[in-house]
Design a protein that fits this description.
Layout lengths: L13 E6 L4 E6 H14 L3 H18 L3 H8 L4 H15 L16 H5 L4
Antiparallel strand pairs: 1-2
Length: 119
């Protein structure tokens, strides 16, 4: 007779994370996925946001070759704004420079258009 504390050896205790857009596919332990996902669900109101940030953190961990649990420990004490900034920093490290997140360049209007704008 099985109990709650004894895992069933016939079941697979892994989770497959994939993202077709970035061609990212990795198999991770279910307990790590649950820990990361539950943290993001406690921070963000939307389940979709929590799942997207979970996949993003695993992607960063995979690309930087740092344990996802180490990354999770580093960001657990941050509030929502600090967390977004940290994840932006991590994701910008692995993204193409043409698609950086949170980068805002100042737009310079055309000289003739700028002359017609009143301040």
């Amino acid at each position: 007779m099985g109990t709650v504390n004894v895992p069933n050896p016939k079941t697979d205790n892994t989770v497959r994370i994939f993202d077709d857009f970035y061609q990212f596919d990795v198999i991770v332990p279910a307990n790590e996925y649950d820990a990361v996902n539950s943290f993001f669900e406690s921070v963000y109101k939307s389940k979709a946001s929590a799942q997207n940030f979970t996949v993003s953190l695993f992607r960063v961990a995979h690309q930087t070759r740092v344990s996802v649990m180490t990354l999770l420990q580093q960001i657990q004490t941050q509030d929502q704004v600090q967390l977004t900034l940290s994840l932006t920093y991590f994701l910008n490290g692995i993204r193409s420079p043409s698609t950086l997140l949170g980068v805002n360049s100042t737009l310079t209007p055309n000289l003739y258009t700028a002359r017609n704008i009143r301040s």
